Amino acid sequence: MRGTYANIDIDVLDLPLIPGCVSAEPNGMSYAELRDSLAAIADHCTVVGFDLVEVNPTLDVRTGVTSYLAAHTVLEFLGNICRQARWERRREARAAARS
User: Fold this and answer.
1) Among 2, 19, 50, 73, which is most exposed with the fewest C-beta within 10 angstroms?
2) Which pLDDT value is given to residue 70?
């Protein structure tokens, strides 16, 4: 199976969600839509790597909402990737080797 590299551009999200992105556009995706799309990618592809771009903390409002949303997206996507069968097989093999 071929590997998939995912490039996540934070400006895919709707403008009010990401004030710390210089190139945000109105009428973007909701966070739930992005989360579900990334979960589907992790479910159907062998993700070998990914990046998340376009976060500019100097433009972020005092709450740091864009940075938080970006970090949350990365963590959720990593969690979905770690549920892939190849990672589960590796965990099971390590557990069997320990016993």
Assistant:
1) 2
2) 96
